[in-house]
Amino acid sequence: xxxxxxxxxxxxxxxxxxxxxxxxxxxxxxxxxxxxxxxxxxxxxxxxxxxxxxxxxxxxxxxxxxxxxxxxxxxxxxxxxxxxxxxxxxxxxxxxxxxxxxxxxxxxxxxxxxxxxxxxxxxxxxxxxxxxxxxxxxxxxxxxxxxxxxxxxxxx
Length: 156
What we know:
- This protein has one domain (2-152): Nuclear Transport Factor 2, Chain: A.
- A hairpin with a 2-residue loop joins β5 (105-119) and β6.
- By secondary structure, the protein is an alpha+beta fold.
- Strands 2-1-6-5-4-3 form a 6-stranded mixed beta sheet.
- The chain is globular and about 50 Å long.
- The longest helix is centred in the N-terminal third of the chain and has 20 residues, at 2-21.
- It is built from 5 helices and 6 strands; from the N terminus they run ααβαβαββββα.
- The protein is 37% helix and 45% strand.
- The termini are far apart.
């Protein structure tokens, strides 16, 4: 059980590493082929089930457009039931973009609840729920970052 717990935590930590280092292959590697994403507490949009490749492409646009990010994840609480697991992980996400429309930063604090499944001895995330406790700074940089990322990736 201890080895599984370690592997589950490392999978969840790679979520942050993949985004912050813009390593989209690493980021994609942590997900099952389909994933349920629930960021309603941040965006107000309902949860959605989609192909993991689609999710990664969506995230890539935003984070390509930001100057830097740092996701800190801590206090993992892991529950394992056979080949399924749940990991609750506290998080603080810093986002930075130099701009002329307000502060250059936006920070979120809260926790993720990830559901994972074991596939061929590898733990992968099948569902991500973000629960935001607080935020501060210039949320508008998220829109600016997505617009800039779309331009840089040739999507606009």
